[in-house]
Amino acid sequence: MPKVPDHTVTHADPGRWKALVFIALAQLMVVLDATIVNIALPSAQQDLGISDGNRQWVITAYALAFGGLLLFGGRIADLWGRKRTFVVGLIGFAAASALGGAATGEAMMLGARALQGAFGALLAPAALSLLAVTFTDAKERAKAFGIYGAIAGGGGAVGLILGGFLTEYLNWRWTFFVNIPFAVVAAVGAYLVIREPAGGRNRSTLDIPGVILSTLGLVSLVYGFTRAESEGWSDAGTISLFAGSALLLIGFVATEARVKSPLLPLRVLTDRNRGGVYLSLGLAVISMFGLFLFLTYYLQVVKGYSPVMTGFAFLPMIVGMIVGSTQIGTRLMTRVPPRLLMAPGFLTAGLGMLLLTQLEIDTSYAGLILPAQLLLGLGMGTAFMPAMSLATLGVDPRDAGVASAMVNTSQQVGGAIGTALLNTIAASATTAYLVDNAAGATTPAAQKLLQLQGMVEGYTAAIWWAVGILVVSAAIAFALINTGKPDMGAVAGSGEGADDELKVPVIVH
Fold this sequence. Notes:
Radius of gyration: 23 Å
Strand content: under 5%
Order of helices and strands: HHHHHHHHHHHHHHHHHH
Number of helices: 18
Helix content: over 70%
Number of strands: 0
Shape: globular
Structural class: mainly alpha
Largest sheet: none
């Protein structure tokens, strides 16, 4: 039997586990940035003289740039190369963070946040697609995505702890400056360690109409939900943004079906399993964002926890996510079909959420909130891990960046919907409770108690919706995702339509 030439042999990158450290570090930085700034916002607002009306833009500027540019960022990763895009994204994110930390006024702060979002949109899809093309053995892929899934799920809670410490003991500016060492270490490590497989770039011309339509469509959608939270769902501006977003995204899909080199090849979306992942993951994130928001307010306002105590109160969820991702998900991913991890995972998280519908003013942390968080973490960790892997499994390596971007897009849009939708439900329930019970509160103490009871009533009403959303998410995962357990051989680059040389990763130095 003739000897196989060296260039056709699959070479596992000897530095792949070191590469995972730097990819995971970058992902942690992006995810925790979503919550770390929330803790610092009151202090930053006061120092910089930002009005209450413009305060939301510190969060919204980041969300719009990040959500709107994700597909473009994924395509740039496929075009430039994922390693180069990853390093540029890290350097840009660090520079934008330095600008935010040094901000002297409102305009400088909002500009820095928009820049953070733009560079985050380069960084996030590059990180996930690097992971997808670096780990090609099914067992190793399971371990790598277990770690990545734990960080993607638990990073937000880490942000609450870190944000609390930095704001309480140093200064709000350190919630920005802390990104700089993260980014520098990850960028240097990535430059020295990461080796990208050859032949995985998509050098076709950039789809400019697709970039414009998708960016404007996603920005309109995210801003529509943000505006709905503050101005109401029936506001003319809110309705206009949703209508404009629908038209732009319909135009985007029509364009992608016709152009020679689409920004988002429709085959990435129409694959039944990937479509199921994007949809179920986006819905699950709606409920998670709502939970972070309500539980943070409940612990600080109702229970009187400090920012640092609040951060530590989320630790059981982080522990649950790490165990769910790295122990349950990783060990079972190569043995059972993904839907038998994702659907039960979402249902377990739904059970944890169901416990939280029993919140009262005097609810015991150890008796209810702690076990609820453990269930939420275990469920989400178990579900996120195969979802992250399946979203890029079998995709043509030339589409890996944009397929990864779709994972982040579904999460970003889900987060925007979750914050706006569940906040609106909570506010309506609180108002209704206060109106119905106002007559009985005749003393200042009784009125204060009524306000707290109204808040808790609003939170539990919204959490019931979050439970329902997780059940729907589980049903979608079970119904749409029909792939079997992964083969034990190489899995990357085996997508339909991939060129032969793409099916056999060759590490280039």
